[in-house]
User: Fold these one by one.
Assistant:
Number 1:
Amino acid sequence: MRRPELRALFFRRSVLLLWGFMLTILVAPFFAPHDIRSPEQVSTTQYQPPSPNHVMGTDNLDVDLFSKVLKGSQVSLIIASTATAITLAIGLAYGMICAIAGGWYDAVLMRITDISFSIPRFLILLAISSVVTEPLSVPQLILLIGMTGWFDVARITRGEVAGLLKRDWVLAVQATGVGHLRLAARHIFPHLVPILVVMATLGIGHTVVLEAGLMFLGAGGLNGSLGNLLQDGSGISSMTHWWMVFFPGLAIVLIVLACNALGDALRDVFAPEQVHAWPTT
Amino acid sequence: MNSTTANSMTSEPLLSVNSLRVYFNTPEGIARAVDGVSFTVAAGETVGLVGESGCGKSVTALSLLRLVPPPGRIESGSSIRFNGKDLALLPTEELRQLRGNRLAMIFQEPMTALNPVLTVGDQVAEVVRVHTKASRSEAWARAVKMLAQVGIPDPSERAKQYPHELSGGMRQRVMIAMALILEPQLVIADEPTTALDVTIQAQILELLRDMRDRTGLALLLITHDLGVVAEMASRVIVMYAGEVVEEAPVHALFENPSHPYTEGLLAAIPRLGEEAARLKTIRGTVPPPTAWPSGCRFHDRCPYAFDRCANEAPMLLQVASGHRARCHLIEEPERRVRGVEATASVLS
Amino acid sequence: MPIGQLIRRNFHGERHDNGSIPLISVPRILSRLAQGLLVVFISASIAFLLMKSVKGDEFTHLLESTNTSATLIATLREESGHNAPLLTQYGSWLSRVVRGDLLPSSSHPGDSVASLIRSALPNTLLLMTLALVSSMAGGIALGAWQGVKAGTRFDRASNRITLSIISVPDFWVAMILILLFALHQTWFPTGYMSSNRSDLSTWEMLRDRLHHLVLPWFSLTLINAAAFARYQRAAMRDVASQHFLRTARAKGVPESIVIWNHALRVAVLPLVTIAGMFFPALLVGTILIEKVFSWPGMGSLLTKAVSSRDYALVCGIIIVGSAMAALGSLLADIGRELLDPRLRS
């Protein structure tokens, strides 16, 4: 897509700033000021407030919070992006199959999706985590989140593809005798890319919050993600040290904001709304 | 109050539009949808405003009530005098008091023009409640009475129904009821029958005629259908490319069309009993309002166009009493030949 | 809920029906009811599967914590049907769910899951309902205002603000509010529903309760209101170009009534449906905030259950949670049908 609006988008201040920040997060742990794996020494100091040495303060083991937040952001982003990728893949395939199959299959499969969509995903995930004997590992978490989130992706994809299939050019392509798979892959899929990109962006933000919430309630193990950090910070003793709560949350906010802002902007590029003022005379 | 007596005492016509210009700021440039239109409507008169889609007639109608949606605006220098006041300059509140009251509008698509979540009776009664001190029940009673007058059977029951429960013809009757309930002096009907079946069209036109005869209202009828004009109007204004290109009493227009565009429109009407291999059309298409052609705006579609037409925009010239047209042929009638030159300029 | 906004139009600018839950639904209340029951049924089944996959059952803790003999445990197991074929167990489980007679909870010995939920549910409902009402009211008001001022600086600025607000996790807002207003300034209590003092008069008790309500309610409302505002803004923009508004103005209706009685009446309709879809998200938000504020509702119950592996309680809460979500959806559909005459015939 070489549209000029797309290019203009990337020069928007907000998008640049926020995604610059995200990039920093991804590479920064390799340059973290303090090693978080082993605290420098068994220290008598705990919970130091932010200072020039420790920009975000330290936790109860005198580990630099800034490094933890950086690492945590990395973990959260990895979980969120992988899970979202799984979600999109499943939803895309399901939706396309539904739309192309049409008729009875479509109706039944869509009903299944709708019903699955209505089941509170968060609760189910929480339940699964309470049932397993060991805390959920990162791969397990990614798989679970990914496999429970594709219902609305499927619904949206199916709608788009169903709309596309009604168009004349699709009929023309089908008249050339092309098989379903080729039709789907080469002709229909390119039209879905914009909407998939928007869903991916917004989905990553959404998943980060979801994962944080799950961690916060203790659904997963100690994987160092931002949700974990928030869980640590919410303990009664640590709440009085405000930086323990503030900075991990701030990281989440910035990540999600970046995703939402980009997704919103992308949506405006791909489907611009002609807005006029509310008529007043 | 009989509006005709009130106005025959003054020399000024009921509605007098002068140099109306309505421009739209679009991403593709300024669209000059209405570009210097002037006309009058006398009290009790029925005037037809005719043209193809894209000529600016609907925008003209909307601008009379200042309902042009943004990004459109009425340019300064335009004057819309109604009952001695300039509507283009009137403060919003005064204009609001005139709308629906002295000056009303009937829209084209009754399904979209009616609020889907309010009952039909409420919507008619709303006009009464907004302009008079009538109570809810009084307004409702008047609404029901009006619905009966416009020919809706079982009006007290129908009034409680919603627009989607009525047929197209009935919805249009409701729109007419809404417009006429306070007996306005001028009614603007924007393509009132276009969205309806042919049989229903006839009924609606008859209804309009009835109401007109009963209340003596002036009617500005906007349409692309010359048949409707022939039936209803006493005077016709033809618009093209944002301008008035011809105006004449209705008989004169049909018997002696002066502007080539009017000629084309009349020729395009197929006649029963006439044998023809092809329907006659006007070659070319309506130009976009962001780029009106130079000189005479019709020159690239005109079968008689000659060199002057591409360079010099004609003025509205007198053809006969009450009959004017915007064409150089009126000054140079000998040029009225379909010639080689004409073809050449058409193709350029 | 950001993805939900994609449902509005596809990228060719057309509005269309994208599946079996179109935006303007034609709800048959019965079919919705059936679907809701199906949802609850499936949740119960999932709960059953989860329980069966756990190594151990409600008698395990007895074995470990007290000195009950293994044979006694075996007998108990036999009697409660643990050795029966799976399908029979499934059947009896379902009948227990329907009767509301769930298993005893392992983290609260002596209490059944049902009774625990019964005492926690009203507290959660209180918080949820208040938050729903206020966020809908606030969101609709803001969104409508933005719609009327479309294209102005206010519209653009407030849009950026709502975007920022929905990017914030609600439980974090809750914690920040506690830090600011309950710890740093002690204007508000840090948690719980009331101070549990018995020496207060009725009026003081009410005041005390309200005092405890403020922070949790505000955390829940803020983000949901921003979300509703975004939907309402979009709905208003859609309505703005509708012809019936022009007709109303042509009748001489004052602009304020055009906005209130014509535009809003129609623009609000999709919001009612959306509110139904919001229920699960609102429920989750409430649960998280309850943990932060130690509010004695389903959320706190759930957190304790998760951490102590009391899966019976967790499953019970899932079922109730699904039922609530389904009920909310159903109510929204009924509401929509009441308000929109086009759906009634």
Number 2:
Amino acid sequence: MEKIKKFRFSLNGIVLTAAFLGIVLIGTVVNENFLTMKNILSIFQQMSEMGIMALGLTIVIITGGNDLASGTTMGLCAVVSGLCLTSGMPIPLALLISLAAAVACGCLNASLVALIGIPPMIATLGTQMFFYGAALVLSKGNSISNIPREFYFLGQDKLAGLPLQAVILILLTIVLAVILKKKVFGKHLFAIGNNIKASAYSGIRTVKVLFLAYITCSVLCCIAGNIQVSRVATARADMGYSFLMPCISAVVLGGTSIDGGIGGVGGTVVGVLIFAMISNIMNLAGISSFWQQLATGSILVLVVVFNKITENSKLHLKKMAGKKAASE
Amino acid sequence: MKKLLERRETSVFLILVALCIGLTIYSPTFLSYTNIKNVLVSNTAMGIMAAGMTFVLITAGIDVSVASQMMFSATWLALLAETPLGNPVTIVLAALLIGLVTGAVNGALISKFDIHPIIITLGTNSIYRGIILVFTNGRWLMNLPKWFTGFSSTVFGIPLPVVYALLIFLISAYILKHTYFGRSIYAMGGNREAARYAGVNLKKTVFLTYTYTGVLCGAAGLVLDSILGNCQPSGSNGWEMNVIAAAVIGGTNILGGYGTIGGTVIGVLMMGVIENGLVVAHVPTYWQKLVYGLIIIVTVTIDVLRKKKADSRKQMIEID
Amino acid sequence: MSEHVFLEMSDVSMTFPGVKALDQVRLDIREGEVHALMGENGAGKSTLIKIISGVQQPDPGARILMDGEEVQFPNVHASIKHGINAIHQDLSLFPNLTVAENIYLGRSKNGKVDWKECDRIAVEALKRLEVQMDIHELLGNLSVAKQQLVAIARAISLSSRLLIMDEPTAALSFSEVRMLYEIIRKLKKENIAILFISHKLDEVFEVSDRVTVLKDGKYVGCKDIGELNESTLVQMMVGRSVTYEALNQESYAAEKVLEVRNISKEGNFKDISFTLHKGEILAFTGLVGAGRSETVKALFGLNPPDQGEILIHGQKAELKNVTQAMKHKIAFIPEDRHHEGLILNMSMEDNITLSILNQMLGKSRFISSRKRAGISGEYVNTLNIRPGQIYKMAKNFSGGNQQKIAVAKWLVTKPDILIIDEPTHGVDIASKTEIHKLLKSLAKQGMAIIMVSSEWQEVFALSDRVIVMRHGRIVHEDSTRDGDQNLMMEKAILGEVKA
């Protein structure tokens, strides 16, 4: 009985593991520094911001939605936090206000999707532009520097030898993985992603769950934004703008279905790690970063197309089997 | 007459006129030849892409790779112009061909696999941009030949890019209104299943729609190069959102089924005039994004609510 | 009408994953005849007309003869070329296009649209129907009845030999129905054959020449209308081959569990009042579109009424959403298992425990796999769900077992009131009997059950009382033990009892 359940995840697991090992192998062959502790830690540091945002996207994509505004939510929260910090506010208060901005972003997205019923991609495409505009207006189109040194801890300190942001990523991953597997909220996310109508008919408060999902995503974007502000000691409206694509790619590469209902955060983190390793190897080998853009786009298209093909062939087989069974 | 007043284009057009009058009163230079020419010419590339976007949105699809497709074309054209093969004829052919290829790739992927067009075009967006950046290493391609910039010269006081754009608008409007393909686009956007029942080949229509949009993006690349006189492969980032905003402001329903080239042209002009007006009024241009984002959110909300209302009315039963 | 059969279909089968929608069906159409296609829900009528009109492809082996020559309808164009076009139930029109274009769409010369031709065809088609309409109005602005006329105009402009209509009168008022009959008679004179699906006996007897009846995807028979009367036709449709064990011999308690007083909702139902007792099975029956599902959904908070009140155990209850309904211990098993009842891509265990996840928490406040497996296993056994693999996805079970999963999903909430919409729709005979026995035993244990069913035998075999609905109202209420079956059927179908 257990076998059937496990098999479903294994196909994607095999592909993901193979990709992961393949890239580690390539990295090791191409550059002897790849597997050094120092380099691994730097990969962790590089992937954390994107990883945290991708975790949030995973949650939303599992519900059958998407948050194309996640990148600009990150920028907006970064700007809000930057403004608060430079105005001399205490750090906790600044973070709190930044989080409040994130919650507002999430609420707007969720209202459009869950209350009004706009297709998520369209709704968040609109808010993407709106949040970006808001961030530009707040920052007057400038980048905010003079971030107080006391704030640098978030993106530059280490905890037990690990970069602090990597620790945050690991903790968030564990928490979300547990929520998805073991909490009612997690089960409801999957149910909604599979069939929102049947979920509502089963007594799930779909609006509430969707609000929580979009708010979670925005809050995670906010955390990623603040880490980046701390790491580079500036805040800009376009921070995170370029994260959207690789994050979605990482989520689907990690085995979460772009149509919702299937997936998990573990795969997403591995997906982000793969992207981080690719860019790391390219940096080590001195290959232009432009290749990364090409690679992320290609991987996204290849993965969604591959998933569709396998899904369709399964469906076809099933139909054939159905015909056979019915004719007997 | 009554129908004309009911259309969203009409109200947008009236707002545009009011805006122009207001700007003229605020600053009479707004109506000067130079300023008008400037507003028109600087929006031609966007207008051409917006015409393609209108097609895509009517089918209930979306294409967020248009800016990349345009730069893909612009970059290869700039490179081609430097080679001995570069002459006005090959450049025009190449522009259309390159656009055809990028558009056809989008069209093939979207029509073959049942995947949301945003996802596919987000992917190809990175791919097209990545290819040209890798190839040029991000280098600006400066000093395009004279014959190339000649594409955007002014003849009898009329800037040629505006003529190209007008020509493309006319062709696009003709296709939408008077061809089977054009009507199929409206049909599938209005009721996809019914379109299938009426014998519309959905896959073919989708493929052709994205391909046509690609061709227009290719043409936009040519126009952009000739206006600027150089090509920045990493440029025009984020233009796709402005293009979508222009179509939506012009009355195209982002959920499909409704839109006109005329409306889109008004939308493009509106955005051009707003941008120009902000400069004239010394308002920082970054307010634009906020306003456009808000416009998209509000119009889509109205469209969705209206559709919901119509659907619920349809489900009612008759009670004696 | 001539005796010449121009369209002959045989061995038409159609398989969807796990379901045989049509099984060796045949059908023949004579020139200029009006042919009614009848059968209960799920009999395969809509599927059959989708095959004739080229929308769906039958399984290999089907034979279609047109004037004695073998033909195929691989797409809609092929059917149109043979002079066949269909109006589907949802009308398949375009709200964003004008009336004229809705009629014209699909035709073109060399890929171009001739707008003059478009207007001409539209005007001509509407003229044949003798209706006045602004052909440049957007279709979305018209009433449903007018849209229906546009759909008919479109179809007759495309069909030179056979016009197919799927429940054409469903959305029409009385006078519009008269008009449609006139149109049908006129087309008949033009030697155009008409095939129509209908649930209304009176209409079949009024206009049709012959009737073909399907049941559960199988061909039952084809008769001239002269050979039939209402009761013989009903018998063909419901088929006497299946009789259910009569289970309604027990009596129920006098305790009122649910009292509904004059609830109404615009466009859904009007002035609905009834009482449900402990241990009773109350059936709601009537035709599709009579407002039965809308009414029971109101009791589950899915379709809150505008007026009236609902009392549960004598207390006024507010039922504005599912959560409130569940608090009042009401459970609802919808008709559409695939889209509303179950989540097909999740396991049986996930489905069974979905509504009670809050009770599945262990000491650590995490969902306990052991509890989930335990309760799922328990219901697998009590309901005899086969195969009993709780981790298997719901979509991989047969229709009968899927329905049992849907029932289990709500039994785990230990409801006082169980509402079940078409309990045995698309379920094989053996499972049907099992589900019937299960419902009865639940009632015996004191559960109050509301059952919506279109199947008369089921209603009479299972329920204690029956409520007949028509056009959103209750038209009849009776005990099933001493009630007159035929009287009720006639009320449901005709709305009045013929003397």
Number 3:
Amino acid sequence: MALMITSFIQRDSFIQELNPISKIFLILLVIASIIILDNLYITYFFLINVFFLAYLAKIEKEFVKGITIVMLPIAVWFLIIHGIVNPAGKTILFKIWFIPFRKEGLLFALNFGSKLVTIISYFYFFIITTYPGDIVGSFSKIGLPYKAGFLINSSLQMLPLMQRRAEKILEAQEARGLKVKGKLKDRFKAYTPLIIPLILGALMETYERVLAIEIRGFSAKVKKTHYKEVNFEKKDLIFCFTYLFLTLILIIGGGNF
Amino acid sequence: MNQTIIEFNNFKWHYSNNKKFRLDIQELKIRKGSFVGIIGPTGAGKTTFCYSIMGVVPHLQKGRMEGSVRIKEIETKNSSLNVLSQKVGLVVQNPLSQMSGAGLNVEEEIAFGLENHGYSRQEMIKKVKKIIELIGLKEYARRSPFELSGGQQQKVAIASILVLEPEILILDEPTGYLDPLSTDMIFTLVKELKKQGKTIIFVSHKFEYLNELCDEIILINKGKIIKKGAPTEIFSDISLLSKNNLSAMDVTNLFARLKKAGKWKKRFAVSVEESEKELRSEFPWMR
Amino acid sequence: MKKIAKGKIKFGQELKNEFNTFGLVLIPVAIAINWVGAYFAQLLKLPIWLDTIGTMISAILVGPWNAAIAGALTNLIKWITFDPVAGPYAITNAAIGITLGMLYRKGWFSAKPTVSQIIKSGIIIAVVATVISAPITVYMFGGVTGGGVDLITAMLLGTGGMGGLLTAVFSSELIGDLLDKLISLVVVGVIIENIPKKYFKQ
């Protein structure tokens, strides 16, 4: 398995096997419904749905943990800011240390915040259930430019590689007596002996890499093909149609909740 | 049958920021299927030599070229790296820089060159499988190239080039970054390739290996070909080597010392096997 | 693709030049340098971020648009590895790349930068970064108002008792940014000086 920076979790479930495009399709449906319908019940329906999907993907524990850690502080901050500052606020509901929290602001935060949290949850769900290598493989079928695919895969691998190098350089320099703790002045001085060798090494390797890929025909003016393919399978069709159907029902019946 | 596959004619090259010629080869013919070792001190122009056959010079480097380099009937100047990369392959010293980054595992990395040339998916799968078998990479096929050791990466680099099935393979000090075990692994691999009839150009300082594998040795210094000849001829000529800042092998130096002490009048051996043979033939009590 | 002026290369060609093989291979490296630059800064507990050094190097070695992509992708990747506030600032990072790229083209910042060049460029870049970031910060944390009143106006007017929030954000960000960009530019200057001449101008 490749050394990657994303939080992909491999579990034995069809969700991880789905074509990434199917999941993106779902995200688009969710965004469209939430924006068009502006209905809190529908928003909560989709929120519950993503937790359900997380359960199907057998990652429910990690998912809940991730969402809580990230979203909770933001949600609280949102409530506070809008409760206090939102100009639509008029009716004071309660005070904490004499700071008034107004009803309209809080309602807005609840409404808008729920929508935001729901949408972000879907993105997070996408990230932890999609193998990064599948992303380029699936998008190239629908016309992702070769150069963009190259960029995405290279970036995914380059980052952890550089991180490892950074740690090696840190070890080496510390072994030579570099002080990374102490007065601010010393710590500032320690920065260049760390970053300079890293960058120079990386740049030199870049020049060499250009050569290496050019002699494998990178600039050839032929239409490039793809070795790795991610196909659209039956389960993808079922997945997409189910949600399309559900969303249509919601939209048509929309407003009647 | 022994046709010329690489031909230099009145070739001169200098990089754009330098008036002096980096490489100056009046005439050189390399036969198809031969294994040529290139030796010379640092800065001699060996890498430029490799670049000139690959087409990196003149297509990727800024400078001025005179004369011609021909790969079969194709003149490198008038061709492109796209065409040349299907006839010539080049493996360089740093294994890491040859990992493109586009392949998330070894299979994809090997397929990269094929993708660039637009091969169909079925063809790619076949060729990748074949080369993985040939080079012995089945164990690592699904791993990320960046998690492999230097020696393994170098094997992947060689595989990624060979999958394009070039007739000529150039290796420019491929074992420079590797430990002795990995070095041996690469030379063993290259020995196999020689058996398959590939034309191989190998730049190295490892004379023992070159002596064993090469059909001929070219000594390059200061941008010119100083001497071209059989390995035994070149590696036993200690004065030639030292004049060009190269050291002879230990066994050869041993014979030179014996000669100096007046104890040896015959030729200098260039390998342990040869030494044994020479010594046994000279000293009956050794038999 | 319009011709900008007679004798100057067309913009389309300019773009293509910045996304040639070297440009493409450099982008992931620039992103990684941004990342590790910040990592070292955090490790040493420095009061500045130093997370745009990669963008800046790209601006000089390739050009403004390449740097813009490198910068924007840095933030998008940060977003995906779950720093949920990083995404919108992709615009800031891109702007830094474009600014330095343009400054370099116009000669305001050279391959061997003088102290005055560093200071001038540092100030310009810091101001650009702050001007673009501050509204993003306020907007993001404030969110969209439902009442049809422009949030920025509300902030400036000090409704609800938090008067002048924008001004406050603006000035604190500016000082931090200035120091950050100046030191980043110094690092970039040292790097560029140490690249062998033959690699320049690919």
